[in-house]
Design a protein that fits this description.
With about 375 residues, the protein is an alpha/beta fold. It contains 18 helices and eight strands. The C terminus is likely disordered. The structure holds zinc ion. Zinc ion binds next to strand 6.
Length: about 375
């Protein structure tokens, strides 16, 4: 079997993905799910006139029975919404060829499938990734004393992550990755919790932005021992891009190096070369370029090639970072398979790599690195593969 076929048939582990909507989706909502912006496109423009919009039509259209040359996004949308109930989501999710999905439950489009439904519709094993800040916000809403906050949070985190694959931090969004890397003292945590809990009681809602508490929950994630996924790089405009460069987390990575907990840098683009360096420099650092592959469409191969410049091949992971649209789960896999085939196949054709090395690295990045990092049972993958 040639490299392209091997990569096409490789069952992937999507280590960072969100749940999706299974029913028809209106044009305005579909557009908003195709951008990291929280605003509609300016009059006279469309979010679908983009690498992502074109890639959806080109690669998802044929899976749903459309001609690959379909001209308009409106025709695509009308077709995907006219299919029998649940067909679009089921077909796209299954065509992605993933046998495990690690699902970030901290941020989900309204009306998305539950984890059990996602598992049923996709045919994949679904495992949760628990967001640290969300757990802290739930604890704060329960109104503990400031002195009890840290203990309650630790308890809730252990309880909620009992069967999770990983925990995740969005400190890049809430404070920036240049936050003080050290663990705050218990006294600092109690004082900060006192301030925050008074605000929460007053406002009736909780959004964790306090820098001391953000550091506390991040360190609690390190203490928990499951891999800590760290959002880096681009994302919605809640973040400041210049403060999400993973290189800003270098001091944090240096002080957590001996903790025994892996740190997984998510997204990374446009700082994926920095991430590749960090993955080389620190034994506990892993990364992905998920999200970027969907958003860069026809340019995805360039990003895969750059991600493989400095990074040891055992440190890069596959993800779609799909959110809301089942199209994005399929497209992430499709673009990854094409990009990896083009990049690794190119290196083989140029005489840099051997064919067997290319196949081996594709399998490492597509699934084996995730299996090892998250301690996923290979037996589950084997069973799913035979179905
Ligand atoms: Zn993400």
């Amino acid at each position: 079997m040639g490299l392209a076929d091997q990569i096409d048939e490789l069952r992937l582990i999507d280590h960072h993905v969100h749940s999706v909507l299974s029913g028809p989706i209106g044009a305005a909502e579909f557009e908003l799910l195709c951008t990291e912006s929280d605003q509609p496109a300016p009059t006279g423009t469309s979010q679908l006139d983009s690498q992502l919009g074109f890639a959806i039509r080109r690669w998802c259209g044929p899976v749903l029975g459309l001609d690959p040359g379909i001209r308009s996004a409106q025709d695509y949308l009308a077709h995907r919404n006219s299919l029998p109930d649940g067909y679009t989501a089921r077909t796209l999710l299954q065509a992605a060829g993933c046998d495990q999905l690690l699902v970030d439950t901290g941020y989900t489009a309204n009306g998305s499938l539950s984890l059990a439904e996602l598992g049923e519709v996709s045919g994949a094993q679904v495992t949760e990734v628990v967001r640290l800040e969300s757990v802290a916000e739930q604890v704060a809403l329960a109104g503990p004393d400031a002195g009890a906050f840290a203990g309650r949070f630790a308890e809730a985190l252990w309880q909620q992550s009992a069967s999770a694959a990983a925990v995740k931090s969005i400190v890049a969004y809430r404070a920036g990755l240049d936050v003080d890397p050290d663990r705050p003292s218990p006294r600092e945590v109690t004082e900060a919790a006192g301030r925050w809990l008074r605000e929460v009681a007053h406002a009736g809602q909780a959004r964790l932005t306090d820098r001391v508490l953000l550091r506390h929950v991040l360190w609690a994630g390190i203490d928990r021992g499951l891999p800590v996924q760290l959002h880096t790089g681009f994302g919605d405009p809640d973040l400041r891009l210049q403060r999400s460069d993973p290189a800003l987390a270098s001091d944090f990575l240096a002080v957590t190096r001996t903790a025994g907990t892996p740190v997984v840098l998510l997204h990374c683009y446009p700082y994926h070369r920095q991430a590749g360096y960090l993955a080389q420099a620190y034994p506990h650092v892993y990364f992905d370029v998920g999200l970027a592959l969907n958003y860069t469409g026809a340019r995805a191969a360039a990003i895969v090639a750059e991600a493989l410049e400095l990074a040891p091949f055992g440190k890069l992971l596959y993800s779609s970072d799909a959110y809301g649209l089942p199209e994005l789960v399929y497209l992430g896999a499709r673009l990854w398979r094409r990009a990896v085939t083009e990049v690794l196949g190119g290196w083989v054709a140029e005489g840099h790599w051997t064919g067997p090395d290319a196949s081996r690295v594709a399998a490492m990045v597509g699934r084996e690195n995730a299996e090892r990092l998250y301690r996923l049972p290979p037996a589950v993958a084997g069973r799913a593969r035979q179905q």
